[in-house]
Amino acid sequence: MGDIANSKGGIAKSKGGIANSKGGIAKSKGSIANSKGGIAKSKGGIANSKGGIAKSKGAKANSKENI
Q1: Which of 9, 19, 22, 30 is the most exposed place for a label (fewest CB within 10 A)?
Q2: Cβ atoms of residues 54 and 63 within 8 Å
C-alpha cells in the first residue's frame, strides 16, 4: 500500500502519494495534494488549495484564492 486518500466530503485520488480532501478535489501522483474547498493536483510536488486551484509538478504550489 503506497496510496493514502483521505476524503471528508470531497474527492481524493492517490497514485503512490497522499491526497487529503475536505470538500474539494485532491489528486496525487507520487506526492502530496491537500484540498480545502478547491482543486489540488500534484505530480511530484506539494499542492495545497484553500478555495482555488493549485497544480504542482515537482515544486510547491499554494492557492488561497477563489477562481
Answers
A1: 9
A2: yes
- Do 56 and 49 touch, CB atoms closer than 8 A? no
Cα torsion angle, 11, 7, 45, 67, sign = positive
d(CA 5, CA 67): 25
- Its pTM stands at 0.81
Any idea where the domains of the chain sit in the sequence?
4-59
CB distance 16 to 30 below 8 Å: yes
Q: How remote is the C-alpha of 9 from its chain's centroid? A: 14
* Percentage of residues in the chain having pLDDT higher than 90: 75
Q: Is 16 exposed, middle or buried (0-12, 13-18, 19+ CB in 10 A)?
A: exposed
